[in-house]
UniProtKB/TrEMBL annotation:
Highest taxon in the source lineage: Bacteria
Protein name: Quinone oxidoreductase 1
EC number: 1.6.5.5
Pfam families (UniProt xref): ADH_N, ADH_zinc_N_2
Gene name for this UniProt entry: qorA_8
Length: 297
Protein backbone atom coordinates (compact mmCIF):
# COMPACT_ATOMS: atom_id res chain seq x y z
CA UNK A 1 0.00 0.00 0.00
CA UNK A 2 0.98 3.67 -0.27
CA UNK A 3 1.70 5.61 2.90
CA UNK A 4 3.27 8.92 3.90
CA UNK A 5 6.41 8.40 5.95
CA UNK A 6 9.51 10.22 7.15
CA UNK A 7 12.96 8.79 7.95
CA UNK A 8 14.45 11.89 9.61
CA UNK A 9 13.01 14.81 11.58
CA UNK A 10 12.80 18.08 9.72
CA UNK A 11 10.80 20.31 7.40
CA UNK A 12 7.98 19.21 5.07
CA UNK A 13 10.58 17.97 2.55
CA UNK A 14 11.29 14.91 4.74
CA UNK A 15 7.81 13.52 3.94
CA UNK A 16 7.83 10.72 1.35
CA UNK A 17 5.03 8.73 -0.26
CA UNK A 18 6.36 5.16 0.04
CA UNK A 19 5.28 1.56 -0.58
CA UNK A 20 4.75 -0.12 2.78
CA UNK A 21 3.46 -3.34 4.32
CA UNK A 22 -0.24 -3.19 5.13
CA UNK A 23 -0.93 -2.88 8.91
CA UNK A 24 -3.28 -5.37 10.60
CA UNK A 25 -5.87 -4.96 13.34
CA UNK A 26 -4.78 -6.31 16.71
CA UNK A 27 -7.19 -7.28 19.52
CA UNK A 28 -9.73 -4.51 20.15
CA UNK A 29 -8.78 -2.70 16.93
CA UNK A 30 -10.15 -2.36 13.41
CA UNK A 31 -8.45 -1.68 10.11
CA UNK A 32 -10.01 0.70 7.61
CA UNK A 33 -9.50 1.40 3.95
CA UNK A 34 -8.75 5.09 4.50
CA UNK A 35 -10.83 7.50 2.44
CA UNK A 36 -9.65 10.65 4.18
CA UNK A 37 -7.24 11.64 6.97
CA UNK A 38 -7.50 14.77 9.12
CA UNK A 39 -4.48 17.11 9.23
CA UNK A 40 -3.61 18.34 12.73
CA UNK A 41 -0.83 20.67 13.93
CA UNK A 42 0.44 17.76 16.05
CA UNK A 43 1.29 15.91 12.80
CA UNK A 44 3.91 18.47 11.73
CA UNK A 45 5.04 19.02 15.33
CA UNK A 46 5.90 15.28 15.53
CA UNK A 47 7.57 15.44 12.07
CA UNK A 48 9.73 18.34 13.32
CA UNK A 49 10.77 16.29 16.38
CA UNK A 50 9.12 18.66 18.88
CA UNK A 51 7.93 15.76 21.06
CA UNK A 52 11.08 13.61 20.94
CA UNK A 53 12.00 14.36 24.56
CA UNK A 54 8.56 13.80 26.06
CA UNK A 55 7.21 11.12 23.69
CA UNK A 56 10.03 9.64 21.58
CA UNK A 57 9.14 7.77 18.38
CA UNK A 58 11.27 5.52 16.19
CA UNK A 59 12.07 6.34 12.56
CA UNK A 60 10.98 5.78 9.88
CA UNK A 61 7.52 6.79 11.08
CA UNK A 62 4.09 7.24 9.52
CA UNK A 63 2.03 10.42 9.86
CA UNK A 64 -1.49 11.23 11.03
CA UNK A 65 -3.89 10.22 13.80
CA UNK A 66 -7.39 11.03 12.48
CA UNK A 67 -9.15 9.18 9.67
CA UNK A 68 -12.43 8.14 8.11
CA UNK A 69 -13.03 5.13 5.90
CA UNK A 70 -14.55 1.69 5.45
CA UNK A 71 -13.89 -1.17 7.89
CA UNK A 72 -12.03 -3.96 6.09
CA UNK A 73 -10.51 -5.99 8.96
CA UNK A 74 -11.82 -6.62 12.48
CA UNK A 75 -9.62 -7.44 15.47
CA UNK A 76 -10.36 -10.04 18.13
CA UNK A 77 -13.08 -9.03 20.56
CA UNK A 78 -14.90 -6.53 18.32
CA UNK A 79 -18.49 -7.67 17.90
CA UNK A 80 -20.55 -4.55 17.17
CA UNK A 81 -18.87 -3.47 13.90
CA UNK A 82 -18.71 -5.32 10.57
CA UNK A 83 -16.67 -5.23 7.38
CA UNK A 84 -18.05 -2.46 5.19
CA UNK A 85 -19.15 -0.12 8.02
CA UNK A 86 -18.38 3.59 7.47
CA UNK A 87 -16.42 4.86 10.48
CA UNK A 88 -14.32 7.78 11.67
CA UNK A 89 -11.81 7.73 14.49
CA UNK A 90 -8.27 7.79 15.73
CA UNK A 91 -5.27 5.55 15.18
CA UNK A 92 -1.76 5.91 13.82
CA UNK A 93 -0.16 6.43 10.38
CA UNK A 94 -3.49 7.51 8.93
CA UNK A 95 -1.99 9.31 5.89
CA UNK A 96 -2.10 5.93 4.10
CA UNK A 97 -4.32 3.63 2.06
CA UNK A 98 -4.97 1.41 5.11
CA UNK A 99 -4.75 2.30 8.80
CA UNK A 100 -5.49 0.66 12.14
CA UNK A 101 -7.87 2.54 14.43
CA UNK A 102 -7.91 2.24 18.23
CA UNK A 103 -11.08 4.33 18.75
CA UNK A 104 -13.91 4.86 16.30
CA UNK A 105 -17.62 5.50 15.79
CA UNK A 106 -20.07 5.12 12.91
CA UNK A 107 -20.24 8.07 10.52
CA UNK A 108 -23.78 9.43 10.82
CA UNK A 109 -26.06 9.57 7.79
CA UNK A 110 -24.67 10.74 4.50
CA UNK A 111 -21.76 12.73 5.95
CA UNK A 112 -18.78 12.56 3.58
CA UNK A 113 -15.57 10.75 4.53
CA UNK A 114 -13.74 14.00 3.80
CA UNK A 115 -15.69 16.00 6.36
CA UNK A 116 -15.84 13.13 8.90
CA UNK A 117 -12.03 12.79 8.94
CA UNK A 118 -11.78 16.32 10.31
CA UNK A 119 -13.66 15.69 13.56
CA UNK A 120 -11.99 13.14 15.88
CA UNK A 121 -9.11 15.03 17.56
CA UNK A 122 -10.65 18.49 17.54
CA UNK A 123 -13.93 17.31 19.08
CA UNK A 124 -12.08 15.29 21.77
CA UNK A 125 -9.98 18.37 22.57
CA UNK A 126 -12.97 20.73 22.60
CA UNK A 127 -15.04 18.52 24.94
CA UNK A 128 -12.06 17.99 27.25
CA UNK A 129 -11.15 21.65 27.67
CA UNK A 130 -14.74 22.90 28.02
CA UNK A 131 -15.18 20.39 30.85
CA UNK A 132 -11.80 21.19 32.44
CA UNK A 133 -12.36 24.94 32.48
CA UNK A 134 -15.69 24.29 34.19
CA UNK A 135 -17.80 26.84 32.30
CA UNK A 136 -21.55 26.50 32.89
CA UNK A 137 -24.69 27.30 30.88
CA UNK A 138 -25.46 31.02 31.09
CA UNK A 139 -21.79 31.94 31.58
CA UNK A 140 -19.48 33.57 29.04
CA UNK A 141 -16.42 31.79 27.64
CA UNK A 142 -13.64 33.71 25.85
CA UNK A 143 -11.87 31.69 23.12
CA UNK A 144 -8.55 33.04 21.84
CA UNK A 145 -7.91 31.62 18.38
CA UNK A 146 -11.49 30.57 17.70
CA UNK A 147 -11.60 30.00 13.93
CA UNK A 148 -9.37 26.92 13.57
CA UNK A 149 -10.23 23.27 14.03
CA UNK A 150 -10.45 23.17 17.82
CA UNK A 151 -12.07 26.61 17.96
CA UNK A 152 -14.79 25.66 15.48
CA UNK A 153 -15.66 22.65 17.64
CA UNK A 154 -15.55 24.61 20.93
CA UNK A 155 -17.89 27.32 19.61
CA UNK A 156 -20.55 24.87 18.46
CA UNK A 157 -20.41 22.63 21.55
CA UNK A 158 -20.60 25.71 23.80
CA UNK A 159 -23.59 27.04 21.83
CA UNK A 160 -25.31 23.66 22.23
CA UNK A 161 -24.74 23.86 26.01
CA UNK A 162 -26.13 27.38 26.38
CA UNK A 163 -22.73 28.99 26.98
CA UNK A 164 -22.12 32.45 25.45
CA UNK A 165 -18.83 32.64 23.55
CA UNK A 166 -16.63 35.62 22.69
CA UNK A 167 -14.12 34.52 20.05
CA UNK A 168 -11.00 36.19 18.67
CA UNK A 169 -9.81 35.55 15.12
CA UNK A 170 -8.30 37.35 12.16
CA UNK A 171 -10.29 40.04 10.32
CA UNK A 172 -11.35 37.66 7.54
CA UNK A 173 -12.88 35.20 10.04
CA UNK A 174 -15.19 37.54 11.98
CA UNK A 175 -18.32 36.54 10.04
CA UNK A 176 -17.29 32.89 10.32
CA UNK A 177 -17.22 33.14 14.14
CA UNK A 178 -20.63 34.86 14.13
CA UNK A 179 -22.02 32.10 11.89
CA UNK A 180 -21.06 29.65 14.69
CA UNK A 181 -23.03 31.69 17.22
CA UNK A 182 -20.14 33.60 18.85
CA UNK A 183 -19.58 37.27 19.53
CA UNK A 184 -16.47 38.09 17.51
CA UNK A 185 -13.52 40.43 17.63
CA UNK A 186 -10.03 40.55 16.19
CA UNK A 187 -6.82 39.71 18.02
CA UNK A 188 -3.92 42.20 17.92
CA UNK A 189 -3.43 45.59 19.55
CA UNK A 190 -6.35 46.72 21.72
CA UNK A 191 -8.01 43.29 21.76
CA UNK A 192 -8.47 43.19 25.55
CA UNK A 193 -10.53 46.41 25.44
CA UNK A 194 -12.55 45.12 22.50
CA UNK A 195 -13.36 41.94 24.45
CA UNK A 196 -14.36 43.98 27.55
CA UNK A 197 -16.81 45.93 25.40
CA UNK A 198 -18.46 42.64 24.34
CA UNK A 199 -19.12 41.53 27.91
CA UNK A 200 -17.90 40.07 31.18
CA UNK A 201 -15.74 36.93 30.84
CA UNK A 202 -16.21 33.98 33.22
CA UNK A 203 -13.69 31.56 31.72
CA UNK A 204 -11.17 31.53 28.87
CA UNK A 205 -9.47 29.08 26.51
CA UNK A 206 -6.19 29.80 24.74
CA UNK A 207 -6.11 27.79 21.52
CA UNK A 208 -3.52 29.78 19.56
CA UNK A 209 -0.60 29.94 21.99
CA UNK A 210 -0.05 33.55 20.99
CA UNK A 211 1.34 34.73 24.35
CA UNK A 212 -1.90 36.06 25.86
CA UNK A 213 -2.13 34.04 29.11
CA UNK A 214 -1.56 37.12 31.31
CA UNK A 215 -4.40 38.97 29.58
CA UNK A 216 -6.74 35.96 29.86
CA UNK A 217 -6.06 35.82 33.62
CA UNK A 218 -6.73 39.56 33.82
CA UNK A 219 -10.04 39.21 31.92
CA UNK A 220 -11.33 36.26 33.98
CA UNK A 221 -9.81 37.47 37.27
CA UNK A 222 -8.66 33.94 38.18
CA UNK A 223 -5.96 31.69 36.65
CA UNK A 224 -8.09 28.63 37.51
CA UNK A 225 -10.65 29.89 34.99
CA UNK A 226 -8.15 29.70 32.11
CA UNK A 227 -6.92 26.66 30.13
CA UNK A 228 -4.41 26.55 27.29
CA UNK A 229 -3.67 23.79 24.79
CA UNK A 230 -0.85 25.63 23.06
CA UNK A 231 1.23 27.69 25.53
CA UNK A 232 3.79 25.72 27.54
CA UNK A 233 4.64 28.86 29.56
CA UNK A 234 1.12 29.04 31.04
CA UNK A 235 1.94 27.33 34.39
CA UNK A 236 4.07 30.40 35.27
CA UNK A 237 0.75 32.27 35.50
CA UNK A 238 -0.90 29.47 37.50
CA UNK A 239 -2.79 28.42 34.35
CA UNK A 240 -3.30 24.76 33.41
CA UNK A 241 -1.94 23.29 30.17
CA UNK A 242 -4.32 20.61 28.92
CA UNK A 243 -2.62 17.73 27.11
CA UNK A 244 -3.96 14.71 25.30
CA UNK A 245 -6.34 12.60 27.35
CA UNK A 246 -7.80 9.13 26.86
CA UNK A 247 -11.41 10.12 26.31
CA UNK A 248 -11.54 9.47 22.55
CA UNK A 249 -14.26 6.75 22.39
CA UNK A 250 -16.77 8.86 24.37
CA UNK A 251 -15.82 11.97 22.38
CA UNK A 252 -16.43 10.17 19.07
CA UNK A 253 -19.86 9.02 20.22
CA UNK A 254 -20.68 12.59 21.26
CA UNK A 255 -19.39 13.92 17.92
CA UNK A 256 -21.57 11.41 16.05
CA UNK A 257 -24.57 12.47 18.12
CA UNK A 258 -23.97 16.21 17.52
CA UNK A 259 -23.47 15.56 13.78
CA UNK A 260 -26.62 13.42 13.54
CA UNK A 261 -28.62 16.20 15.22
CA UNK A 262 -27.19 18.85 12.90
CA UNK A 263 -25.49 20.67 15.80
CA UNK A 264 -21.93 20.41 14.49
CA UNK A 265 -20.45 21.24 11.12
CA UNK A 266 -16.82 22.16 10.56
CA UNK A 267 -15.97 23.14 6.98
CA UNK A 268 -12.98 21.64 5.20
CA UNK A 269 -10.95 24.61 4.04
CA UNK A 270 -8.82 22.55 1.66
CA UNK A 271 -8.23 18.92 0.67
CA UNK A 272 -4.94 17.40 -0.49
CA UNK A 273 -3.81 14.09 -2.02
CA UNK A 274 -1.40 11.74 -0.21
CA UNK A 275 1.32 12.97 -2.56
CA UNK A 276 0.62 16.54 -1.42
CA UNK A 277 0.98 15.89 2.33
CA UNK A 278 3.92 18.30 2.51
CA UNK A 279 1.72 21.12 1.16
CA UNK A 280 -0.92 20.29 3.77
CA UNK A 281 1.72 20.60 6.51
CA UNK A 282 3.04 23.89 5.14
CA UNK A 283 -0.49 25.33 5.02
CA UNK A 284 -1.39 24.04 8.51
CA UNK A 285 1.83 25.37 10.00
CA UNK A 286 1.08 28.86 8.60
CA UNK A 287 -1.51 28.93 11.44
CA UNK A 288 -4.59 30.42 9.76
CA UNK A 289 -6.76 27.44 8.90
CA UNK A 290 -10.50 28.15 8.89
CA UNK A 291 -12.07 24.85 9.98
CA UNK A 292 -10.09 21.82 8.83
CA UNK A 293 -7.54 20.53 6.29
CA UNK A 294 -7.89 16.95 5.08
CA UNK A 295 -5.91 14.44 3.02
CA UNK A 296 -8.21 12.59 0.62
CA UNK A 297 -6.99 9.08 -0.26
N1 LIG B 1 -2.87 20.13 23.95
C1 LIG B 1 -3.78 19.52 23.20
O1 LIG B 1 -4.45 18.58 23.62
C2 LIG B 1 -4.00 20.01 21.79
C3 LIG B 1 -4.99 19.41 21.00
C4 LIG B 1 -5.24 19.94 19.71
C5 LIG B 1 -4.49 21.02 19.25
N2 LIG B 1 -3.51 21.54 20.05
C6 LIG B 1 -2.73 22.71 19.60
O2 LIG B 1 -3.65 23.81 19.64
C7 LIG B 1 -3.38 24.71 18.57
C8 LIG B 1 -4.64 24.93 17.75
O3 LIG B 1 -5.01 23.74 17.09
P1 LIG B 1 -6.02 23.79 15.86
O4 LIG B 1 -6.12 22.42 15.32
O5 LIG B 1 -7.26 24.52 16.24
O6 LIG B 1 -5.16 24.70 14.86
P2 LIG B 1 -5.61 25.42 13.49
O7 LIG B 1 -6.79 24.74 12.93
O8 LIG B 1 -4.37 25.53 12.69
O9 LIG B 1 -6.08 26.89 13.93
C9 LIG B 1 -5.19 27.87 14.33
C10 LIG B 1 -5.99 29.13 14.59
O10 LIG B 1 -5.18 30.07 15.30
C11 LIG B 1 -5.63 31.36 14.95
N3 LIG B 1 -4.57 32.36 15.20
C12 LIG B 1 -3.43 32.53 14.52
N4 LIG B 1 -2.72 33.54 15.08
C13 LIG B 1 -3.45 33.98 16.14
C14 LIG B 1 -3.27 35.00 17.14
N5 LIG B 1 -2.18 35.76 17.17
N6 LIG B 1 -4.23 35.17 18.09
C15 LIG B 1 -5.35 34.41 18.10
N7 LIG B 1 -5.58 33.44 17.16
C16 LIG B 1 -4.63 33.23 16.22
C17 LIG B 1 -6.00 31.29 13.52
O11 LIG B 1 -7.04 32.24 13.29
P3 LIG B 1 -7.06 33.23 12.00
O12 LIG B 1 -6.93 32.35 10.80
O13 LIG B 1 -8.42 33.84 12.11
O14 LIG B 1 -5.91 34.16 12.14
C18 LIG B 1 -6.45 29.84 13.32
O15 LIG B 1 -7.83 29.77 13.22
C19 LIG B 1 -2.19 24.11 17.81
O16 LIG B 1 -1.01 24.72 18.30
C20 LIG B 1 -2.21 22.65 18.20
O17 LIG B 1 -0.91 22.06 18.14
C21 LIG B 1 -3.25 21.06 21.29
Amino acid sequence: MKKVSFAEFGGPEVLRLVDAEEPHAGPGQIRIAVRAAGVNPVDWRIREGQFQQAHPIELPAGVGQDAAGVVDEIGEGITDFAIGDRVFGEGSSTYAEFAVLTAWARIPGELSFEEAAGYPSVVETALRIIDQVGVRPGQTLLVSGASGGVGSAVLQIARERGITVIGTAGASNQDYLRSLGALATTYGEGWVERVRRLGRVDAALDLAGSGVIGELVELTGDPRQVITIADLGAPEFGVRFSGVAGSMPAALDEAADLLARGKLHIPVEKSYSLADAAAAHIDSRAGHTRGRRVIVV
